[in-house]
């Protein structure tokens, strides 16, 4: 494989991951307690969510984009632009998968990146109205349930 081909492949992979990161962070902000993502965005697999949540550089890039403190990909910009509308409508045309993945992202941000979560919430929900509307009954804003204990070994 040539250096150019390798570089092109790396750029393509990075672009895909950046788009996914933008989606996931937007989902997290949209959710503010469980709202779902808009239908024009593709479904996201749990494995993809794990890849993004475990990539510090991608998280930082898209948090900065959403906070208007750094550059955005075209998808990141679109998501940043659409967040207020989605919050206002309660994201009523969203899929169950987006709801589930957004709750995973929210729990991650609250537990592992609380300062980033606070900044995102402060920017997109400064009065706390969406959190009050969506958050009171949502599992996303509560502490995650502990994992079930492993079954005892059989004799």
TrEMBL record:
<feature type="region of interest" description="Disordered">
    <location>
        <begin position="128"/>
        <end position="155"/>
    </location>
</feature>
<protein>
    <submittedName>
        <fullName>Allergen Tha p 1</fullName>
    </submittedName>
</protein>
<dbReference type="InterPro" id="IPR036682">
    <property type="entry name" value="OS_D_A10/PebIII_sf"/>
</dbReference>
<dbReference type="InterPro" id="IPR005055">
    <property type="entry name" value="A10/PebIII"/>
</dbReference>
<keyword id="KW-0732">Signal</keyword>
<feature type="signal peptide">
    <location>
        <begin position="1"/>
        <end position="31"/>
    </location>
</feature>
<feature type="compositionally biased region" description="Pro residues">
    <location>
        <begin position="145"/>
        <end position="155"/>
    </location>
</feature>
<dbReference type="Pfam" id="PF03392">
    <property type="entry name" value="OS-D"/>
</dbReference>
